[in-house]
UniProtKB/TrEMBL annotation:
Protein name, per record: D-aminopeptidase
Recorded name of the encoding gene: dap
Species assigned in the record: Parvicella tangerina
Beta-lactamase-related domain mapped to chain residues: 69-385
Record-listed E.C. numbers: 3.4.11.19
UniProt KW keywords: Aminopeptidase, Hydrolase, Protease
Gene Ontology MF term list: aminopeptidase activity
Amino acid sequence: MIRFLIYCTTYFWRMERVIIAMALIVVLLLSCGIDQENTVDKGEKVVEIVPDSTAYFDSVYAPYKISLDTFFRNKFEQTHFYGTVLFAQRGRIIFENVYGYANLQTKDTLTLDHTFQLASASKPFTAVAILQLVEQGKITLSDEMHKFFPSFPYDGITVEQLLAHRSGMSQYTHFCDAPDTIWPDKHKTITNNDVIKIMSEIKPMINYAPNQTHYYCNTNYMLLASIVEKVSGVSFSDYLKTNIFQPSGMTHTVLYTRDNDDELILPTIGYNGAFNPTIDIYLNGVVGDKGIYSNVHDMLKFDQALYNGTLLQDSTVALMMTDHNELQSNGQNYGYGFRIYPEESTEGLGRIVFHTGWWKGFRTYFIRVPKQEKTIIVLTHIKRGKFLDIKELVSLIKSL
């Protein structure tokens, strides 16, 4: 027993010496090896310790910043591009910049905060609003228009057909604009309710039977916005603000209805190819297919809200990005609120989900590559030159 106690005492004494020695070594290393500038001295070379990953990503993205700026600056110098640009991956901004002026007459400086009419790039927002109501059990994809508007003149047109552009209806921009007897006072704003009333009265000729084929038609998304108003009991503008813009943190985004100019935040002016400002026409009162003003940062927030479950369940977002039509001759398909380039048609770029827009001088591009979580947002306000090529834009950051 005595031998055992002596052994234990000796053992712990030795261990105590070892622990003290190790502690001294650590203290010496900490005091000699690291200075107050977060650097490690390795002989004559001082290596900075980066407190986070910012410097790493800056170095990775540096070549892309140069090539992307060169790409857009060339178009700007050819007077084919005026606007704002943002490229991101997994929510981290790779590149952002502005080219041109917010107002060509006054030469106001264009900033990343300036907002642009999204035109048809508003459609993903309308699709999200409808699918939120579906998730809440307030409507179904198979509900027909008669359920919401009993006087609607066509049978068999469903919510799903509107989302996927399979209703076969004609463009409201055509049958409302001519002949003049339909809407004689072109200074008076026309609204969604006005268009639905006109449809009930004159029953415009349809292009295809419901669900026969894909036919892209702005009337579909105008009607979807009206369904949102009917079911929610609030204006489409208020619904978007409460259920999409605010939850996503979009502070500069507004639905323009032609009577709320004072609500727009740093809006740009749209110009035609001759650099003349476009006119705010009566059709700007119709929403759902267009109408949202936003900027690149807010659009990135919307993009991230689709990834992180803020707005919809993951399975519902996947449904938006699923092919709901036959493949078109241009290699595209259409989901719910998004155009789609299937992966097999993109030459290694991955599946591309996007929507473009064009309306009265504005051209917009909202592009997503879900597999790599890449996002491209391009907002322009001068109609000059060709539309930007979606695949070409994605190829600019292909190797990331």
